[in-house]
Amino acid sequence: MKARSAGAPRTVLSVAYPFAAVGPDAVGGAEQVLAGLDAALVRAGHRSIVIGCDGSRPAGRLVAVPPPSGLLDDRTRDLHSARVREAVDWALDRWAIDVVHYHGLDFHRYLPSVSMPVLVTLHLPLDWYPRAALVSSRPDIHFVCVSDAQTRDRILPSPLLATIPNGVPVDRYVCGRARRAFALVLGRICPEKGVHLALDAAHRADMDLLVAGAVFPYEAHERYFRDEVVPRLDARRRFVGPVGQRAKRRLLARAACVVVPSLAPETSSLVAMEASASGTPVVALAAGALPDLVEHGRTGWVVERPDELPAAMRAAARLSSDVCRRTAWARFDARVTADRYLAVYEQVSRGHGRAAPAALRVEVLPERASSEDLVDEWRTLFERCPDATPFQSPDWLCAWWRRLARGEPRLATVRAGTELVGLASLCITRSADGCCLRFGGDSIGDYVDVLADPRWRMAVGRAVLREALRRDAGWDRVQLGNLPPNSPLLAAARALPRGAIATGDGIPCPAIQLAPTFEAYLGTLSQGRRRKIRRAARLFAAAPGARIEPAGADTLEGLLDALFALHGARWRARGERGVLADPGIQAFHRDVAARFLSAGLLRLWVARTADGIAGVYYGFVRGDRAYAYLGGFDPQYAALSPGSLLIAHAIDDACAHGCLTFDFLRGTESYKYAWGASDTPTRVLSAGAARRVAAPLQRAARVAAR
């Protein structure tokens, strides 16, 4: 693979926040920054490709994503994120991209399926992003902050590559000499921007005020505009809606001052920079970076309280337009920002090259023993995949093949030359409905999926899907699930012709996004829930001989016996056997637990008192995720809440281990949500009988082969 030389033309794929247009008339700050970088890339002779919503007008190539309709609720956001992810994978397949640059709050929802240089500019306060998104296990992701204020007293993203302050094209703004007696508010209309405070201040200062900006179709934003902004409007305080660049420059040049009454910890403020470039003072609340951007008494006034805004607005006329303009040239020139980003693009892409997907070769091995022959290679591949779950490990799946496999096991291997870069444990089952291809172990494991080297995720997904959809493959139905949201198979399936394969909902897996410490996590729960957890800990600690012990090599067998017995007793009380009653299942877990213990993945704890075992917890930890698999407790200890006690202990251990997520795995039992869990969706890919979908499958196979 030939690496790019320093200074050679590069191709940058920029991914915008999917609900706001990018271009000369962009409303949002992130979109304006992206538009400036896009234009700078084109001017410098590089290729710029922008993924943005319809209506965007970049200087480079646009890959348009249809905008959502109606309110932007969770379902709409999930659907739109899937569309953006499809667009990213499509662009990576079509062009030789050197860097993917993300600008949106939800960038983590549509990261590339392949390993390649990724740059993420964090335009918003760091605590607005999911913590897991800022602590990446992928070595190819680099973060950029936009101000020093953004990183003060906060958990920094890892790895933080640079802090690059935003800028504006100062030369495009005209310094207003004959300013009029109206104040101006520019930007999104939403609660955190505090527009209502500017309207109240304008009333008290007896000043005219124009509010220019967009109301995005979020329910909270529309309610805020309706309930807090509209009632404060009158003949002298008016809402003029979104404005284009020409109208914005005219307003900035004529305004007596620009008011920035933000209640959020602003990381930057293009509006404040544009005002200075127009020679117009800024009146702002002291939020986030604003005290650093507005020089108090020179280019504006920075006040601590909303009731100080009226006096500051009246005093703005005393400040010099020339000083504001000179400050903008010295501090806020967008050309400096663009030059720093171009240098970063070269830095992160230098030496990068991607192998061609055509080099992959798929082989389906029918023999059960093949898995044992591949264990060393399989384990090496597993260690290279930071997002792989314990249920994809050779220890888990080889034990399943030995103890529980039904039907005809298959092992699909994907190789680049001689290197193993992908693997799928499969099984063919036969019934009256026909012959079905499934994942091996899908009944006892969660997030079953293809194991794919991060460098080859998309290509491995295509290769395995192509093999599954071959018309002469020997099965007439395909059902692959429960797939995690970032599955390479889902990414590949989205590129297939409609009707080739169906995508349905799997069983959700509730999970907790953890805080850095257990105490910080407890702070996210309700006061009542915290009391219950602490009370259980006190009661247990007061019991004679109370202690929680981990399994060791000498105690493992005994603790597993206790787990099987306690779990079985619970189900027998309901008149059922329970999953752990089967001797094959018990043998499987004995195999797995011994292997996971030696690999450091096992979390098997027992809660004891002087009188006996109160409960047993059985789970795993891998990378930045902990998994709660099973548990059992003795009903006679119910007053001590051993189940809750052990889960709290497991969460505490996960925080100490540096985990970002505590996963309760599949099932929507109510107790999981009491711990603050929210659903992680899973998906199922399925295709019907070959005689009904033969033509779509043939088309799909041709597409997957490309």
Q: Would you tell me the overall average pLDDT?
A: 87
- The CATH topology annotation of the largest domain reads as Aminopeptidase
Radius of gyration: 29 Å
Specify the CATH homologous superfamily of the largest domain: Gcn5-related N-acetyltransferase (GNAT)
Low-confidence stretches: 1-6, 353-358, 689-706
Rough outline: globular
Q: Total strand count, please?
A: 28
In helices, the fraction of residues equals 25-40%
Separation of the first and last Cα atoms: 20 Å
Number of helices: 24
Strand content range: 15-25%
Structural class comes to alpha/beta
CATH class of the largest domain: Alpha Beta
Write down the domain tally. 4
Q: Indicate the multimeric state.
A: single chain
> Per CATH, which architecture of the largest domain?
3-Layer(aba) Sandwich
Largest sheet: 8 strands, mixed
Overview features:
706 residues, alpha/beta, Rossmann fold, Aminopeptidase, 4 domains, 8-stranded mixed β-sheet, 7-stranded parallel β-sheet, 22% strand, globular, disordered N terminus
Q: What's the topology here?
A:
Blueprint: E1 11-15, H1 29-43, E2 47-53, E3 61-65, H2 74-94, E4 99-102, E5 118-122, H3 131-134, E6 141-145, H4 148-151, E7 160-163, E8 182-186, H5 195-205, E9 208-212, H6 219-229, E10 237-241, H7 245-254, E11 257-260, H8 270-277, E12 282-285, H9 290-293, E13 300-303, H10 309-315, H11 321-331, H12 334-349, E14 360-365, H13 370-373, H14 375-383, H15 394-403, E15 408-416, E16 419-431, E17 434-439, E18 451-452, H16 457-468, E19 477-483, H17 488-493, E20 502-505, E21 509-513, H18 518-522, H19 527-542, E22 547-550, H20 556-572, H21 583-599, E23 602-609, E24 612-622, E25 625-633, H22 642-657, E26 661-663, H23 670-674, E27 678-680, E28 683-687, H24 690-705
Parallel strand pairs: 1-2, 1-4, 2-3, 4-5, 5-6, 6-7, 8-9, 8-11, 9-10, 11-12, 12-13, 17-19, 25-26
Antiparallel strand pairs: 14-15, 15-16, 16-17, 16-18, 19-28, 20-28, 21-26, 21-27, 22-23, 23-24, 24-25
